[in-house]
Amino acid sequence: MAWTREQMAARAAQELRDGFYVNLGIGIPTLVANFIPKGMNVKLQSENGMLGMGPFPYEGEEDADLINAGKQTITQLDSSSFFSSADSFAMIRGGHIDLSILGAMQVASNGDLANWMIPGHMVKGMGGAMDLVAGVKRVVVVMEHTAKGQSKLLKECTLPLTGKRVADLVITDLGTFEIQRRGDVRMTLTSLADGVTVDEIKAKTEAEFEIKLDGQQSMAS
């Protein structure tokens, strides 16, 4: 057993707080918008110049001119505002975004993040990820635990980095990992997906990590 994409997004939504300004990356992070608790005031921001994004539109109601940074059609709210991409990045670089929820290809145990390119593969550009991890107050990563049978949680990233020591929390389909990326740097397994065991996570994780589940604490590698 493991968490579905929707369950991973629902877990990420638990990191939201009332009054937060939040940027959602492409892929699984976009699903977080569907799990914002009722009554919670969260403003979703997009690099292409929108603040206050609404949910995804119903089929047949899409507006091709209303998209997020991942080119997905979205809806607007009565409180939505629009501005230039330059202003959007000024918000990000100025530290005005409370939380960014991103996907990743690799995360290291010290919080290093690689999520923008694989050498030899064509990419359209680095997008806004490098600004997001440098400018926001907290970074949550949501991703599959493995790719082609290989761990995506590593001792050191092997792909080009998006940022050094930037990830605070990693949510995979197997569980959650808190990262202390300052001072006594460490990665800690804090919860398990339904039906997943610690031994399974040990077998599928290259990075060294501590375990702190329901008061139980130990070291794994």
From TrEMBL:
Keywords: Transferase. GO terms for molecular function: CoA-transferase activity. InterPro entries: 3-oxoacid_CoA-transf_B (IPR012791), CoA_trans_fam_I (IPR004165), NagB/RpiA_transferase-like (IPR037171). It comes from Allorhizobium terrae. Belongs to the 3-oxoacid CoA-transferase subunit B family. The keyword Transferase applies. This is 3-oxoacid CoA-transferase subunit B. Pfam families: CoA_trans (PF01144). The keyword Transferase applies. It comes from the Bacteria. NCBIfam families: pcaJ_scoB_fam (TIGR02428).
